[in-house]
Amino acid sequence: MTVLHLVESPLARRLRAEDQDEDAGRLSPDDRLTCHVHGRWIHQCVSSPVHVHPVTRHRWCRRCERPLTVAIDELAGTVRMTCPGCGAGGSGATTRLLAACRASLGVVTARRPAAVA
To answer: What is the pTM of this model?
Structure first.
C-alpha cells in the first residue's frame, strides 16, 4: 500500500497559521502577510476593491474620496499606494497595509533562486 504525502505550500502554512493567530487574538488583521479572502499573499491581491475601506481608510483618500492606486514591482521589491487625484492619500491604516505588503513580497522573493547572469 502506498501512502500519499501531501506537501503543504509555504502560502498554505502561512494562511493557516495567520488564521489561527488572528482567531486567538495574537495577530491583528492589519498585520497579516496573507489574505484570508483571496487565499493569496497580501501583495498579490491588495489592488482588489475588497481591500478598499473608506471608514478605516485602508487604500482610501479621505480628501479626494477615492481608492488609492497600487503599484507593485516584484523585481525591484517596491510597493506604492497613491491617490490618483492628489497624489497622496496616506493614512495609518494604509501605512500598515503597505508594511504588510512589503513583508509579504519579501517572504516570496526570498524564496526565489538567484538569477543566473
So the answer is: 0.84
- 8 A C-beta contact, residue 73 and residue 4: no
The number of folded domains in the chain is 1
| pLDDT by 10s per residue, the chain, length 117 | 455 556 789 999 999 999 999 999 999 999 999 999 999 999 999 999 999 999 999 999 999 999 999 999 998 989 999 999 999 988 999 999 999 999 999 999 885 544 443
Residue 66 counted as domain residue = yes
| Residue 59: partners with Cβ closer than 8 Å, 6 or more residues away | 46, 51, 52, 53, 67, 68, 70, 81, 94, 97
**C-alpha cell of 38?**
483571496
Domain that holds residue 67: 45-107
